Amino acid sequence: METGEWIEHSSGIGAGVDSFYEYLFKAHILFGKEDLWRMFHSAYLAVQKYFRHGPWDHEADMRTGKATYWQLTSLQAFWPGLQVLVGDIAAANTSHCEFVYVWKKFGVLPERYLLDHQMLHPTEKYYPLRPELAESTFYLYQATKDPWYMEVGETIVNSLNSYTKVEGGFASIRDVTTMQTEDHMHSFFLAETCKYLYLLFDDSFLVDWNHIFTTEGHPLPVLSAWQDRLPEIYIPSNWTYVKDEKKTKRSSAMSLQVWPALMQDMANNWLRALAMSRMLKAITSVSVMKSVELTQLAVDEDHVLFFTSRLHCTVNYSRNRRKYTGQVDLS
User: Fold this and answer.
1) Binding residues for Ca(2+), per the UniProt record (predicted)?
2) 284, 184: one domain
3) How many domains does the chain contain in total?
4) Do 207 and 297 reside in the same domain of the chain?
5) How remote is the C-alpha of 220 from its chain's centroid?
6) CATH code for the domain of 125
7) 22, 59, 98, 111: which is the annotated catalytic residue?
8) Is 111 a known active-site residue?
9) Do 277 and 156 share a structural domain?
10) Rounded distance, CA 224 to CA 304, Å?
11) CA-based angle 307:145:193, to the nearest 5?
12) pLDDT digits 0-9 by tens, 266-308
């Protein structure tokens, strides 16, 4: 604190820095500040460039970019959920599968797992009922509606009931090799682990529910009054296998669903362009109907636009009493 000098040069996405990434992006969603988006964008590209190795994310030296610790930690399991919010669903699925693999290998997710040796860390074999894997499973199911994620949720619930349930609640596990429990239950088990598992199996009240969860699982409403201004650009990169920032491609993010006003503006701009090109002779009204997998913009019964996660637009239109389908790349 006196000199401002770094004493630890190894960086990653887990303990000590995880909430930094999460709050950069979520604060951008809440307040619409473009500088927060640019900071997150830069950090995310750096993560993909220096930390990612196949489906795993190791740690690296901040000065050289070289790998330091080849390990998976339970706190890293939040990352696929954040990737879903950003729109990088392919990478989220790949990472999530590896966390599920380790969970199934031990019955729960150990605090630290050594990737280079494919074995437990000798002193961090515990499982304190952390919520991160359940959280990412919830987000991925919301994004894809793939029932496999519900099966993962069932696996998590069964493990919790089998290994951690005790008379007074649910107990942390001291050692995942013996499943010896401790006389301890963190509050985040109720605030997050149980909450995300519940939402995974019953998300009925999320319809028209425009909120975002904090890193501790508390919901905050996304209100237009809080928005500093809508960002001038909102074009996340196609980040799944980014190696060179100059070669990135633009795509949309799932979090656009929290900005119906922005989607409305995008729709109006493109509809005006289509009208000028005489693809559409008349435009009636435009409404935004939020959906988890895509956003549908209804113009009228003959003209419907679908914005997918990569900002490609399918346009159904009619001309001379014949119906046509056209593809428009909005990126």
Assistant:
1) 215
2) no
3) 2
4) no
5) 17
6) 1.50.10.10
7) 111
8) yes
9) no
10) 26
11) 120
12) 455 555 555 554 444 443 333 333 332 333 333 333 333 333 3
Task: Specify whether the CB–CB gap between 149 and 201 falls below 8 A.
Answer: no
Q: Are 59 and 51 in contact (CB under 8 A)?
A: yes
Tokens standing for 268? 């109006």
284 is in an annotated binding site: no
Q: Is residue 182 domain-shared with residue 277, that is, in the same domain?
A: no
Same domain, 184 and 131: yes
Q: What's the CA gap between 55 and 69, in Å, rounded?
A: 15
**DSSP conformational letter for 14:** S
Q: Same domain, yes or no, for 210 and 325? A: no
Here the tokens at position 251 are 């795509």
Amino acid found at 1: M
Q: Is 269 exposed, middle or buried (0-12, 13-18, 19+ CB in 10 A)?
A: exposed
- How many of the other CB atoms lie within 10 Å of CB of 313? 19
> Cα separation of 173 and 22, whole Å?
27
In the chain, % helix, strand, coil (3-state, to 5) comes to 40, 20, 40
Q: What pTM value is reported for the model? A: 0.69
Q: From CA 79, how far away is CA 89, in angstroms rounded?
A: 11
Q: Which residue has the higher pLDDT, 101 or 59?
A: 101
Q: Quote the domain boundaries for residue 185.
A: 10-226
**219 located within any domain:** yes
Length, in residues, of the chain? 331
